[in-house]
Amino acid sequence: MTGRMREVELVDEVDVPVPPAPDGRAAPDTPGPWPRRHAFWLVPTALLVVAGLVGTQAVLDARERSRIEALAKVPGVVAPAGPDIGVIWRAPAELGPVLQYGAEVDGLLVGGVSGTDGVRVLALDPDTGASRWSTAVTLPTAHPQPDGRLPTSAVICTQIPHGDRPLAGCLSQQFGENIVGLPDQTIWVLDPTDGDVLSTRTVTGTSGVTFTRDAVVVASRVDAAGAPARADASSVRWNVAATDALDGTSLWSYTTPAVDVLGREDGPAGADASGGASMTTSGDDHVVLSVDTGAWILDDGGRLVRAVPLGPGSWIQGARAGAYVLSAYTASGTYSGELILADGTSAPIDQTAAWLAVDDGSAPDVVLTAGDGPTGVYGLSGRDVATGKTLWHDDDTVNTALLLHGVVYIATLDGISAVDARTGRVRWIAKLDHQFREMSTDGRYLLVPGRGISLDAYSLADGSHAWSADLRDAVTQGSPTQTAQGFQPSGREPRMFVWMNDGSVAVLG
Question: Which of 44, 404, 416, 493 has the greatest number of beta carbons closer than 10 A?
Fold first, then answer.
C-alpha cells in the first residue's frame, strides 16, 4: 500500500433499479436515504446551526475587540503586534528625549527637546513620527557646575485629564554632577491639539511638583505666617496647593506642621542637604509629599489621609488599593520597612513595593512586594491588602513583571511564569535559553527581546511560543556599525523602542 492519500466519496445509498417481486408484481416503494427523506427540514436546521456558530463567533470577536480596546488605555500596553512587526519610523538622537521623557497626550507624543535654536515642546505622530506642532519655551537660568559647564536640561511631560479634554503638563528639570544650588523649575500647560501655551509658572528648585486630574499641585516652603520661607531657614512648613490646570483657579490647599530642614551633616552618609520636596501621585489620585523626616498623604481634595515619619535613607511608595510601602535600604544590602494598610495599621516587611511594567487594576485586594540584595529576600510576594498577610511568595529573582486579568507574569533569570495574583497558583512556566530585562504585552501576547535583535511572543494562556520576528536588518539598516543598546517598552507611549548606540531610536509597530 502506498503512502499516498486517496480521495474517497461517502454516499448514503446508490440509486439502483429495484427488481420486480417474484410474483411479477411491482416492488413496493422503498424508503429513500435518510437525508433525502428528511431534507425538507434538515437543510434549514443546518443553516440555523451554521448561523448560530457564525453568530457566536461574532460575539466572541466583538468581546475580544472590546477587551483589547480597554487594555489599550492601560499604561504600558503596546499596540497589537504580530510576526510582521517592524520599524515604522526612526527618531534621530535629538528627538530621543521626546520618547524618553515625553508622554502620549490626546493621541500624540508630546515632549521637550533642546538644541541650538533653544528649547521646544513638540508633538509627534506616534505612527509616523511626523511633527504636528512645535512651541518654543524658555527654561529657567541654568545653575553652572563647579567646572563651569552648564547642566543638562530636560523637559518631562505627562497627560493631565481635565474635564472632557486632556491637557499636556510639562516640567523643566536640570541634571548634572554637583550642580550648585537647586535650580528653579518651570511648569507649562499646553493645548495638545496645537501646542498653544495655556499657562506658565516658575517655582523654586526646592518645590515639589506633580500633576493630578484637573490640577497642577505644587509644594512650597513657607514660614509660620504662610509667606515664602527664607533660604537659610532651619525650620519650615510646607504648603501644598492645587490649582486648576486650565485657568489657575485655586482648588485646595494644605499646610504641614513645622519640620526641621536637614543639612549634609544630618542626613545619611553621602546625602546632599535635602531642603527640597518630593511629590508623587498614587493610583487613587492621592498626593504624597516627602520631605526630609516626614511624609504626608493627601486625598484628591487636599485632606490629610496620613502622616508618616521617615527615617534616614527611607522612602514611601504608593502600592495598591490605598496601601503604601515604607522602605529603607540597609547597610547590609537588605530592605526593611512597613506595609501601611488603608485603615492605618501596618505590618513589618523585609521587601519594598514591586514595580509592574503593566498593571490593569485587576486583583485589587492584593499588594505585590519585591526583595533584592545580596543578603535579602529575593523574589516576589503577594499580600492581602486588608491584613498584610503573605498569600504567596515566588523566590525566583525577578527581572520584571506585569499584571493582567488577575495573573502576574514574572520574568526571571531563565524564563517566564504565570502566577495567580490572589492564590499564587502557578498556571504555567516557560523556560527560555536567554535572559532579558524587558517584557511588554499587547493584551494578546507577552513580548520579550530574543537573541540578537529580535522579538519573541508567548501566549498569555499557556506560555507557548507564538511567533518570532528577526529585526536586525530593519533596525540596523544593514550597517555593521549600528548596534542596539536594547529594547525599551515605554510606560508612557503605546510603542516599543529600540535604542541605538548613536542615541537614535527605532520605533516598532
Answer: 493
